[in-house]
Amino acid sequence: MDYLQVNRANWNARVPIHVGSDFYDVRGFKVDGRIALTPFEREEVGDVTGRSLVHLQCHFGLDTLSWARLGAEVTGLDFSDAAITQARALSDECGIPARFVTADVYDAVEALGERYDIVYTGLGALVWLPDLTRWARTVAALLKPGGFLYLAEFHPFGDILDDESGTTVTYDYFDRSPHVWEEPHTYTGSEILEHQTSVQFQHGIGEVVSAVAAAGLRMEFLHEHDHTLFARYATLVADGKEYRLPEGAPRIPLMYSLRATAAK
């Protein structure tokens, strides 16, 4: 199976559903000036005023344009032409300067043709990539001397637990085989997808850190977070825009973030 072709069709089909969903709240972004980033992302990245930032696997650009609202000079890259079309339209409608490029992440160096102060990769991106070593080398090649990678992701530990309670080990943490999914809906609602097949790749924390280190980047921190952004298990309790296990239950890592710097 050509994972890239299959996943591109799947994500092209998701774009109009996501743009119209309450989950992404595009209206709030356009009308109310909402920032679509988590508080910990903003805190850990720090002041981006005047800094060049490229967002790899940017989808239709909400996070990318949020960094622009915070002062960054932004570029977004995604393999979905439908997503990039929407990102450009949103940029124009909001009057937020941004560059958006359609390309596979592994082709980013050639497609973008420049280096950046910050390479940002947001939640839910790495499961679509089969080769993290190649990804990390791409990131390193995109960074200016002294620039840094910032990655925020869902924690792979959460994916080995049962879907109902999140308390029982059910899946193999070390399974690196491609997983083919047939899902009629995307994560934002009940509208039926035209292309329902996707191919995903699970990566452990050790694999991520090792790939980043092998690319020559110096790890500044790896933070694990006890909350997530959606009801991953039926037992999770909403806490504002975050979801946690009930009070008194043993906590588990549900998201993580890391920052790694290129040599000067």
Can you give a write-up of this model?
- The chain is an alpha/beta fold and 264 residues long.
- The protein has one domain: Rossmann fold (3-Layer(aba) Sandwich).
- 30% of the residues lie in helices and 23% in strands.
- The protein is built from 8 helices and 11 strands.
- The protein has helices at 3-19, 26-32, 39-45, 62-69, 81-94, 108-112, 132-142, 205-214, and strands at 52-56, 73-78, 99-102, 116-121, 143-154, 179-182, 197-200, 218-225, 237-239, 242-244, 255-261.
- Strands 3-2-1-4-5-11-8 form a 7-stranded mixed β-sheet, sandwiched between helices. The chain has a two-stranded antiparallel ribbon with strand order 6-7.
- α1 runs parallel beside α5 (81-94).
- The termini are far apart.
- 33% of the residues are buried.
- InterPro entries: Methyltransf_12 (IPR013217), SAM-dependent_MTases_sf (IPR029063).
Write the SSE topology.
Blueprint: H1 3-19, H2 26-32, H3 39-45, E1 52-56, H4 62-69, E2 73-78, H5 81-94, E3 99-102, H6 108-112, E4 116-121, H7 132-142, E5 143-154, E6 179-182, E7 197-200, H8 205-214, E8 218-225, E9 237-239, E10 242-244, E11 255-261
Parallel strand pairs: 1-2, 1-4, 2-3, 4-5
Antiparallel strand pairs: 5-11, 6-7, 8-11, 9-10
Helix pairs in contact: 1-5, 7-8
